[in-house]
Design a protein that fits this description.
Blueprint (H helix, E strand, L loop, with lengths): L3 H12 L5 E12 L9 E17 L4 E6 L5 E5 L12 H13 L7 E7 L9 H17 L5 H16 L6 H8 L4 E6 L5 E5 L4 E11 L3 H21 L11 H7 L5 H26 L2 H19 L4 H11 L4 E6 L5 E9 L3 H16 L4 E5 L6 E2 L1
Parallel strand pairs: 3-5
Antiparallel strand pairs: 1-2, 1-12, 2-5, 2-6, 3-4, 6-7, 8-10, 8-11, 9-10
Length: about 375
């Protein structure tokens, strides 16, 4: 496992002087509440025990150098020339973060940095937000400024929206910053209230990465536009509605005949997801982990049928899981269109479940997924 001393040593090896700041930020698993964040909705997620590190020291001038220890790649960029992102480059997450920190009055000095991560790439586990949050914590320390957690989260979101061009919400940043060991993070994206919700001790999370990622930036943004169209339609009769958060399933059923079919289906998913988050909290409070798990299965069905952000590989993983001993619930997690499924399973069965899941998927597709048993971890910290 990555640790602060290892990375400080790697920094020294690379730049021949000691690092002065270090921060780590975890990825996330979305448990319920899919595509609810940019609809002023609610979600249950967790900070996962896979993380990204950012270790740095200031340097004179305006040029920064960053080495990614996982790929061995290096990037150099000038703080005076951040206006234009380089297409499809991971350094955009750092450059965009610096732009957003500057906008918030934080003057980031030139720096050298190494980064390292144990979060699977492009899997839908919040790797981008983890890099933003780790860099944000380390670079604000370099600048001698403290940003409140919500501002840091919003800087990360703004980096994705404005610099990367993905109109994402705040789920990944909230989860990375506010996670607690053994707990889910309940986030309300309207009030920005966050609460820890205890995960039952007897359950484990098996994550399966189907290792397929269908290109989705365009699809993601398109889903968001359809949600906005649904709100605009519903507002004509119900001016009090300002986001899908304000809409009930009954209202949607009444509005269905006049509504554009895609806008209706996307809205139906989001409204259902908000309901499942509140129902899920209630089931956990009652200690009914089976009923909680069923909500995950329902969530996946809703993704598949209404939001159409699943794909054959994810559907097969969920179906294979549903046939296994120990299964409580499974669904895609995050944006969708590939990446991971998350399976809530009985702790005692977790290792066998992961093995059988991989075998069953392999026999149906010829490919082996990457499986991991994951836990809820602490949120981002300086180290
Ligand atoms: C991605 C985005 C989040 C959220 C999820 C779907 O992870 O980054 O903001 O919208 O998809 O819930």
């Amino acid at each position: 496992m990555t640790s602060s001393p290892d990375l400080r040593a790697a920094f020294h090896d690379t730049f021949n002087r000691p690092a002065t700041v270090a921060a780590r930020a975890p990825g996330r698993l979305e448990i319920l509440g899919n595509h609810t964040d940019y609809n002023d909705g609610v979600a249950l997620s967790l900070a996962v025990d896979r993380e990204t590190w950012f270790v740095a020291a200031p340097r004179p001038g305006t040029v920064c150098a960053v080495r990614d220890l996982r790929s061995g790649e290096c990037r150099e960029f000038d703080l005076k020339a951040l206006a234009n992102p380089t297409p499809k480059d991971w350094a955009n997450y750092l450059k965009g973060m610096i732009v957003e920190l500057n906008r918030r009055g934080v003057t980031v000095p030139a720096f050298d940095a190494v980064i390292q991560s144990t979060i699977p790439l492009s899997a839908g586990m919040g790797g981008s937000a983890a890099l933003e949050m780790a860099a944000g914590l380390a670079l604000t320390q370099l600048a001698g400024v403290e940003l409140p957690w919500l501002e840091l989260a919003k800087a990360g979101q703004a980096c994705e929206n404005a610099y990367i061009g993905a109109r994402t919400g705040l789920l990944d940043q909230f989860s990375s910053l506010r996670g607690e060991p053994g707990h889910l993070v309940f986030s309300d994206f309207r009030s920005h209230e966050v609460q820890a919700v205890l995960l039952p001790a007897a359950v484990a999370l098996v994550v399966a990465n189907c290792l397929v990622k269908h290109p989705h930036t365009g699809e993601y943004n398109e889903r968001r536009t359809r949600c906005e169209e649904a709100v605009a339609f519903l507002q004509v009769k119900h001016p009090e509605i300002s986001a899908l958060r304000d809409v009930s399933v009954a209202q949607l059923e009444t509005a269905k005949p006049g509504m554009e079919v895609m806008a209706w289906r996307r809205a139906r998913h989001v409204v259902g997801e908000n309901g499942r988050v509140f129902a899920g909290i209630e089931e956990l409070r009652r200690g009914d982990v089976r009923a909680f798990g069923r909500l995950l299965d329902e969530s996946h069905d809703s993704s598949r049928v209404y939001f159409e952000n699943s794909c054959p590989e994810l559907d097969i993983l969920v179906a294979c899981g549903q046939a296994l001993p120990g299964h409580l619930g499974a669904r895609l997690s995050g944006g969708g269109f590939g990446g991971i499924t998350v399976h809530l399973v009985r702790e005692a069965e977790a290792a066998a479940y992961a093995e059988r899941l991989a075998t069953a998927f392999h026999s149906r597709t010829g490919n082996r997924p990457e499986t991991m048993i994951c836990h809820a971890a602490a949120g981002a910290r300086r180290a």
